[in-house]
Inverse folding.
């Protein structure tokens, strides 16, 4: 009896995990929900949409992997802005608002890291929940119809941009621009858990 | 005098050999080590990094559990620190009195994560439990967890295949 119960727990857990994350082809969840951002003007992902698509990055102020990849945030934003793609970084760490992820902390961080794109505060981790996002940094790339075409890592080397072999996100963006199929639609990388509020 | 020098030399060498062996490994290497315990002990693998504060927070508790359950459970730690930070990882493991074999990821993230467990997003910490009897995955969780959660997972691993009346 215990064995069956244990198996039930495991399968429930696995189902929960497997069905959680946004699938390729899904539309942007909570599209019109306004979020506060560091420049003071509330913005929704709908507002942020570029002509050809939108790059959404779940991010934060302190995760070492965010800090490692951050040197590429502006590079990617600037390269693809002129090609009709906009970008939003979202801080969903509701659980650490009082320890490094407040709006005040976000403003300081955006200024220090010279963010040129929107950096928004996801109140109550609503968007992270709707996306099924579990870590930072984590990218969701949407096309002009607000459909998910790529999710996962920026590239294959957080530590050293010069040693990157697979530029996952930029390759996906280039494929979209060239009207080609994206070769790798989903990748994974090490990162920090999103700090949801404990239940 | 010569004998004295030789004795001192070997003494120093044996002292300087840490009780811990931090080995660079890919997901397959780690699986091969885990498989050695099938039928003998449950295995718990904890993926961590020196830069991951929730990982550091739960570490002493995991070490305590490793002592409590040592007759039925083998615990492996896998550091996902960058290779350049191997010394930091080693220093931390020594400070926590980790002994024996420990791993440092030397594989690209995407391959490592997918070959470790398809349900893992890559977030740290990550913990997997392999059943004592089958050596198969019986439980796993992402994020820092309570001792209660760890014990639940460990007991599933240890009791796998046992009939509980």
């Amino acid at each position: 009896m215990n064995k069956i119960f244990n198996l039930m727990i495991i399968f429930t857990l696995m189902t929960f995990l497997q069905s959680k994350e946004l699938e390729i082809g899904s539309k942007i969840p909570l599209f019109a929900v306004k979020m506060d951002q560091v420049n003071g003007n509330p913005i929704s992902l709908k507002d942020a949409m570029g002509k050809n698509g939108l790059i959404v990055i779940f991010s934060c102020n302190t995760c070492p992997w965010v800090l490692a990849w951050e040197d590429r945030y502006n590079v990617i934003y600037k390269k693809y802005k002129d090609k009709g793609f906009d970008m939003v970084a979202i801080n969903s760490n509701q659980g650490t608002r009082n320890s490094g992820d407040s709006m005040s902390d976000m403003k300081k961080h955006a200024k220090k890291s010279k963010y040129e794109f929107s950096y928004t505060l996801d109140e109550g981790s609503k968007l992270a929940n709707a996306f099924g996002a579990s870590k930072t940094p984590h990218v969701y790339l949407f096309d002009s119809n607000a459909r998910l075409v790529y999710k996962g890592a920026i590239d294959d080397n957080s530590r050293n941009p010069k040693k990157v072999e697979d530029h996952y996100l930029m390759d996906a963006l280039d494929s979209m621009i060239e009207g080609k199929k994206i070769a790798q639609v989903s990748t994974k990388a090490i990162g920090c858990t999103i700090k949801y509020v404990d239940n | 005098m010569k004998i004295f020098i030789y004795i001192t030399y070997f003494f120093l060498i044996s002292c300087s050999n840490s009780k811990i062996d931090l080995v660079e490994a890919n997901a397959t290497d780690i699986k091969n080590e885990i498989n050695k315990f099938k039928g003998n002990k449950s295995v718990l693998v904890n993926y961590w990094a020196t830069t991951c504060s929730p990982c550091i927070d739960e570490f002493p508790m995991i070490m305590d559990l490793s002592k409590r359950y040592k007759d039925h459970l083998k615990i492996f730690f896998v550091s996902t620190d960058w290779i350049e930070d191997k010394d930091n990882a080693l220093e931390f493991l020594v400070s926590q009195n980790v002994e024996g074999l420990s791993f440092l990821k030397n594989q690209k993230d995407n391959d490592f994560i997918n070959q470790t467990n398809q349900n893992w997003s890559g977030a740290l910490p990550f913990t997997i439990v392999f059943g004592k009897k089958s050596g198969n995955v019986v439980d796993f969780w992402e994020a820092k967890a309570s001792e209660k959660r760890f014990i639940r997972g460990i007991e599933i691993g240890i009791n796998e295949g046992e009939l509980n009346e």
Remarks:
- The interface with chain A takes residues 49, 51-52, 54, 80, 82, 84, 108-110, 113-114, 119-124, 138-144, 156, 159, 161, 163-164 of chain B (CB under 8 Å).
